């Protein structure tokens, strides 16, 4: 299989429309946020060429293109504030997903 970088370059070129431009733009933003990001292609099947994956200490996000959207999925998205940098930091710390803060019911009555 060709390198992931070559695969992504070819995907952008083959799309040839706004989706390719958007994927290229998002890719540049990801690399700008973390120059040590590794590009991969995972989950290749006979029926699918695979999914673009950006990793650093684990999966940061995936990039997929569909007819009407370019979709970025962040592996730990719900636990992150600024996504790309936070996703890398989360992976490198090796912490599990933070527990939500519990909210205690108030005994005070509001009229």
Describe the protein in words.
The structure is a single chain. This protein starts with a helix and ends in an 18-residue tail after the last helix. The protein is built from three helices and four strands; from the N terminus they run H-H-E-E-E-E-H. Helix 1 (4-15) runs antiparallel to helix 2 (18-33). The protein is an alpha+beta fold. The model is unreliable at 105-111 (pLDDT under 50).
Write the layout of secondary structure elements.
Layout: H1 4-15, H2 18-33, E1 38-42, E2 51-55, E3 59-65, E4 70-74, H3 84-93
Antiparallel strand pairs: 1-2, 2-3, 3-4
Helix pairs in contact: 1-2
In short:
With 111 residues, the protein is an alpha+beta fold. It has helices spanning 4-15, 18-33, 84-93, and strands at residues 38-42, 51-55, 59-65, 70-74.
Largest sheet: 4 strands, antiparallel
Percentage of β-strand residues: 15-25%
The H/E string reads HHEEEEH
Radius of gyration: 18 Å
**Neighbour order of strands in the largest sheet:** 1-2-3-4
Provide the descriptors you would attach to this structure in a database record:
single chain, 111 residues, alpha+beta, four-stranded antiparallel sheet, 3 helices, disordered C terminus
């Amino acid at each position: 299989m060709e390198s992931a970088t070559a695969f992504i370059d070819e995907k952008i070129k083959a799309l040839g429309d706004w989706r390719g431009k958007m994927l290229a733009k998002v890719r540049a933003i990801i690399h700008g946020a973390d120059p040590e990001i590794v590009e991969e292609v995972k989950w290749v099947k006979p029926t699918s060429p695979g999914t673009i994956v950006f990793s650093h200490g684990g999966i940061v996000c995936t990039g997929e293109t569909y007819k009407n959207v370019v979709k970025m999925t962040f592996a730990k998205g719900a636990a992150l504030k600024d996504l790309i940098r936070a996703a890398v930091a989360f992976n490198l710390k090796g912490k599990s997903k933070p527990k939500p803060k519990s909210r205690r019911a108030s005994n005070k009555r509001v009229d």
